[in-house]
Amino acid sequence: MKSLLLSFIFIFACALSAQQQTVITGKLLGHDKKPMVMAHVHLIKAPSSQSFDRVQAGSDGSFKIATTETGLIVVEFTGVNHSAFDVPLLIEKPTKVGLSVTLATYSYVDDLKELKIMSDLTDFAFDKAQPMLKQSDGTFAIELETKGDKLAYQVFGAEKNSRSINGTQSDSYEFDGAGDYKSIVTPNGGKVRIVFDPKKAVRSNAEAEFTFSDPASTIAKIAGIQQELTKRNITWSAAATAHVKGGKDFKAFTYDWSADQASIVSRLKSEKDPLVKQALLLDYIDTRAKNATTGDPKIGARALKEIPPDSRLWMMPTLPLMKAAADLSGNQSAYEEYLRRFLDKHPDMPLKENLLMNQLMTAKMQGDEEQLKIYYDIAVKFFGDSPMGKTVKERFSPTINIAVGKAVPAFKVKALEDTTKFYTNGTFRGKIYLIDFWATWCGPCVGEMENLHKAYERFKSKNFEILSLSLDQKPEDVVRFREDKWKMPWLHTFVTNDTALTNAFEVVAIPRPLLVDGSGKIVAMEGDLRGPQLEVTLARFLGAPK
């Protein structure tokens, strides 16, 4: 009898445990609707970017993964030769989710001229990546020596989005922990010759797709809306880039989202689920954040009224939409009140800290003293005497000295190549010059290299100069960086230990670009000097080169 009772308790406990889990099942396939040689399903708890659990898909692509977590769970799907794909699931209570996904292949560089390899011989360090030699048949090759019985590697430079990915030569594969895979090869006599063949790279125009077994569920509808935001961002980025590359100012850029807006309004009228309606309101506001030609202010006001401040729809990607809703409604005071309630009621402290620090940083770097004062007062009250509160008081004084129209601070810095030589304000008197705080470890800084080189080459004959101020660990980091692809043929200095200088220039994040005219006045900064917009801004002050 006792044994029977214990068995019953065990079975009941297992059943209860199963009911308290969300179980996600389905199939993960490649672009051709067939299983991939290796693929994984990962669970990520927002706002973290690291997975807390993963399973490998079966040989037929099937998978099953369970979690007791609730809130926003991002399910990331990865596979060899394919780009990672995320599906957000807003889980309010344990449930069963049927979800099948097909991935898109990598987008490869059209005319591959340079390729590098990273391996476990150098701990996959980007700055130690080795060049592969281009062969007469169009392949790239390298010979390596190793004492190990296997060698793991990835190639860098083949994928358009600058990801390090698996090669075309592999005996097996390993997940790299960041959405891609390592190729594994077997050495022979301590040596291995690795070949990357562009013709063997798996290519397809098929887009990633996902389907839910219950498309009418709240989880499925919200995931679909999130996908709309993702696709809209791709469309918007391409249109904005084309606009600026055409020589037009980004500030004049608008996009006709009227078809999207009409679809969203129609669904708002028929939708009964309150949470889905809130997601649709954010979907509409996203069009406003993406330079919509027109927009209904009532939708912005409705969002601030109907979306609870503690809603789980507020996550890292949607945080900027809070301000966009206020801008659409035209009611700044309503936004400030909503922000205070959000800080008071939302349970996610990292999310609240992120919102406040981003707003403070944006206002500071854009020289917007009015907005900085608003966020400074709110942040000081919210953080109090905590370490974060002390950081706010130290780094975000509501008085801004670096802004368009103000004089550039006095400076005196040593030339990187010749420490007996100094650059000062006087060095650039009569010139238009770009001050650029940067570092080799800063991804966005390195991402601006192509734009900076194009701008310098185009305007260097127009009494224009660039002064790059490095915040690297040591000057040698800059020297090594310039020996590679980006030569940066302008003026350089190293200012990591010069806190008086970085404080004077109010550097709270990098890149930190400022454009100064011949009289020493700041004439442009930040977004006006990033991406293709840099050349547009320079042309405004220097004129188009002949």
Concise structural overview:
The chain is built from 15 helices and 24 strands. The protein is an alpha+beta fold.
Structural class: alpha+beta
- What is the typical, i.e. mean, pLDDT? 92
Q: State Rg.
A: 27 Å
Q: How many strands, what sense, and barrel or not for the largest sheet?
A: 6 strands, antiparallel
Q: Describe it for me?
A:
The chain is α+β, with helices and mostly antiparallel strands and 546 residues long. It has four domains: 21-105, Immunoglobulin-like; 116-200, no CATH class; 215-347, no CATH class; 412-542, Glutaredoxin. The protein is built from 15 helices and 24 strands. It has helices at 2-19, 218-245, 258-270, 274-289, 297-306, 320-329, 332-345, 349-366, 369-383, 387-395, 443-447, 449-459, 475-482, 499-504, 533-542; strands spanning 22-29, 39-45, 51-56, 62-67, 71-79, 85-91, 96-102, 116-119, 130-131, 133-134, 140-145, 151-156, 164-165, 172-175, 181-185, 191-196, 209-212, 412-414, 422-424, 432-438, 464-470, 491-494, 512-516, 522-525. The strands form six sheets. Strands 8, 9, 12, 13, 14 and 15 form a six-stranded antiparallel sheet that branches. A five-stranded mixed sheet has the order 22-21-20-23-24, with helices on one face. A hairpin with a 5-residue loop joins strand 10 and strand 11 (140-145). Helix 6 (320-329) runs antiparallel to helix 7 (332-345). It is globular, with a radius of gyration of 27 Å. The N and C termini lie far apart (97 Å).
